[in-house]
Amino acid sequence: MILLALDWTQFFGRFHPLIIHLPIGIIVLGALFYWMSFREKWSRLKSVIAPILLGAAITSTFSVVFGLMLASDGSYAASSLTWHKWSGIITAIATWGSYIFYTAESKPSIPFKASFYIMLVSLILAGHKGGQITHGKNYLLQYAPGFLVTLFNGSIEDNSSYFIAESNMDSTEAFRDIIKPMLDAKCIQCHNPDKSNGGLVLTSFEAILDGGNSGEVLQAGDVFESKLFARTTLPQSSSKFMPLEGIPFTYKEQEIMAWWIETGHEEFLKLRSVEIPKNILVLLEELYGYSHKPKSFVEKNKVSPVDSIALAAVNKIGFHAKPIANNTNFLDVVVSPDISDITAEMVSSLAQIKEQVAWLAIPKRNLQDAMLQEIGTFTNLAKLKIPNNPISDQGLAKIKNLPNLEVLNVYDTKITDQSIANLESLKTLKNLYIWQTAITKEGLERLQAALPSTEIVSGFEFASNQSE
Amino acid sequence: MNSSCNHIEPINSRRDFLRKSAMGLGAIALNGLITPNLNAQIDRIATAKRIIYLFQSGAPSQMDLFDYKPTLQKMNGSDLPSSVLGDQRLTGMSAGQSSFPIAGSHFKFKQHGESGAWISDLMPYTAQIADELCFIKSMYTEAINHDPAVTFVQTGSQFPGRPSMGSWLSYGLGNDNENLPSFVVLVTKGKMGQPLYARLWGNGFLSSNHQGVQFRAGKDPVLYLSNPPGIDDADRKNQLDHLHKLRKHQFDQNQDPEIEARIAQYEMAFKMQTSVPDVVDVTTEPDYIFNLYGQDSRIPGTFAANCLLARRLAEKGVKFIQLYHQGWDHHGGLPQNIPNQCKETDQASAALIMDLKQRGMLDDTLVIWGGEFGRTAYSQGKLTATTYGRDHHPRCFTLWMAGGGIKKGISFGQTDDFSYNIASHGVHVHDFQATILKLFGIDHEQLTFKFQGRRFRLTDVHGKVVREIIS
């Protein structure tokens, strides 16, 4: 008999996500009607509450049974199921309790009220935990405003974009920086320690090597024997095609994955240590913005979202502060054209969001040495443009410890050769603008020798003035 | 509820009101705090914040300036091989010629800078800054006549009526300085040549506050900006406030967005009463700056003066500064006429680059120098020992870019030995536009505006970012 050979447990188990919505809806309806029935106008609803609760009790029992069946094949880790399972069971029991106590008494009794509210609370908990299993822990609050996130204390891991942690190819590792982000984006929702579909976990290199229920998924040098690659390149209509949901691996991602497997799928493969075929290099650049030049500070670092109230205050007091791009929380801050002289108060206001300020421009606003004290604590500053201001060597000394400064524009300021030692300490500088300062030619040479990879711009004249 | 073709959505029922306020309020509150007036998604960290486009109207001859072709000089006078000529479309001005004699350039070329860029003797100042520039030698377009070609470069369509590039950027990125328009146009004064029209910097179907504002040369760069005698700022403000109330009243009745645009423009005009005289006042510029840009820069309305003005506008945060310099349309007498055009533009263009650089502005200011198409390798009209002319040639031309995240000291793309066909890496006008938007962090496929039932883009349905020239 064919029917006996079927796995009935899993057949019914898979109905769990479908049927689960019935008790949720019915219980909410029952609660609504129960509260409404207190009003004279709606009192006739009292007569339908019992049948509704009975319906809820029956469907929630089925949900629990199907849920237990679904869990029985072990592809969900017990640890993540505990809360969902027990809150679901409590919901079903409390629903039965509500029904029984409601029909037993003519007026709502204490036992009824107790089981009724237990039912509601456990329903919310079970629903939430179930959602986390299906959609992942970050799903609900991924796009929530920053204050909500901090309120629930869930620091949200951002998997949404491939942002490379390391600055350039020299320090980039194939697995950590390229393959893992790919898997994180497309696979780990179902292949994580909590929910290891097919017994496969793809969250760490060791786990990938372990493979799944049907053996290893990587065969060095043989992409088509490597299931990690082969399953993602099947026809999309195939039932074995991965990922089951969401956007499949793109051609570019497949190519890069194939290249990694062919070279032997090493965990710590440094990109610089191997000869990468040109087509892969192109893909790496397109997909990850890799180029042979180092990434800027803003591109390789992350920061928590800015406090929107502080941001609004900064914009109100006379700055234009806005995110540098969609995929970063760093801010580009420019002083408003309506401000003629900057004040210490404005700078202190800016200090509230200093963690996010990466680019700052305050040109020609009578910026004083004293105000640089505060700016010198903006450790995430990568570009600082403060030309045409009465800044002296004392002022410059206050920003000499900015650890990530890449661009410093202090043209037309009062700095002299005394600032050279301080400028030399800015080792991360890529561009320095010192036109119209009192820095001498000798000073410039010394500075250039100390900062050999910094482009120092100190003014320009045409070689031969050929004008009439 | 259907919106009318003018995007007018009257609020005419309680349901509409509730729907709009429910969906709108949350979004407004959030957006207002985080991203003020952005219609563009900034997907990539922008390397350009503003652009100065030195448009050379009339189409400069690429093989007399930047695209060095010794073959042309060697084969001077012989007929352009039909394998090169192909069956390309020619203009009516030269299609009927009995022969197509190759015209080698009369000007000497040398390599300049560490990058070894070939530049002719006509551009001695540009030659000195060759290492700052990125030459695209394989530009091509589809239009063969001036008006459609300029319109194509500026708006992405040969047909008039689409928004200009500056309007798109203003629409997409908003305004960095609320006291000045985000799109300013400067036209060299007193030049003859192919006509320019205000629609080249028009807003098309975008809101009219995104249109380019042309500054005139001389005392009144924007006409009627100063108050008439007897009216002071307070009176004017009072008057505008009342006008504003009237318009608001009208707007409440029919919700025409053009009324809001008009209110915004009157606001802008009022602010410009103080901001414009300040920004165009070049008397504060020191002598060495005038020397850098050349003595022409002391005369208002010249290309050099406009370059200097462009720098001042860029310093104030104007996003798109469009210069036009006419007179490059050398159908005849090219060797006699082109030197003067170069003299008018060479030094100031190079000076602008270096002035931006020494002020630390070149890294986020994109500068573009180029025309609407190229010119033919063969002579239009009779080729003599002393003179030749060149007809319109859309199949290849050269332009250069600098700053704003463009690689410096490179040449991109190649033409064949006759500078007649593209040999490698052709860059279509749409590719060029897509690349510019990319530098501003915008995906050219995402910056759209829905009009007449369709979403329009600057690049229409084309365009490929030229990644190779982005640093």
Task: Write a short abstract of this structure.
The complex is a heterodimer of chains A (468) and B (471). With 468 residues, chain A is α/β, with parallel strands linked by helices. Helix content of chain A is 45%, strand content 7%.
Molecular structure report:
The complex is a heterodimer of chains A (468) and B (471). Chain A has 468 residues and is an alpha/beta fold. Chain A folds into 3 domains: 2-151; 169-295, no CATH class; 308-457, Ribonuclease Inhibitor (Leucine-rich repeat, LRR (right-handed beta-alpha superhelix), Alpha-Beta Horseshoe). Helix content of chain A is 45%, strand content 7%. Chain A contains 20 helices and 9 strands. Chain A has a 7-stranded mixed sheet. Chain A has a two-stranded antiparallel ribbon with strand order 1-2. In chain A, helix 6 (78-104) runs antiparallel to helix 7, helix 12 packs across helix 13 and helix 16 (344-351) packs parallel to helix 17. The N and C termini of chain A lie far apart (104 Å). The model of chain A is unreliable at 154-167 (pLDDT under 50). Chain B is an alpha/beta fold and 471 residues long. Chain B has one domain (37-225, 276-469): Alkaline Phosphatase, subunit A. In chain B, the strands form 5 sheets. In chain B, strands 1, 4, 5, 6, 7, 8, 11, 12 and 15 form a 9-stranded mixed sheet that branches. In chain B, strands 2-3 form a two-stranded antiparallel sheet. A two-stranded antiparallel ribbon of chain B has the order 9-10. The longest helix of chain B has 25 residues, at 334-358. Mean pLDDT of chain B is 90; it is low at 24-36. Classes of the chains: A alpha/beta (468), B alpha/beta (471).
Strand content of chain A: 5-15%
Name of the CATH class of chain B: Alpha Beta
Main beta-sheet strand count, sense and barrel state of chain A: 7 strands, mixed
Strand order of the largest sheet of chain A: 3-4-5-6-7-8-9
Give the largest interface pair and sizes.
A-B, 43 and 41 residues
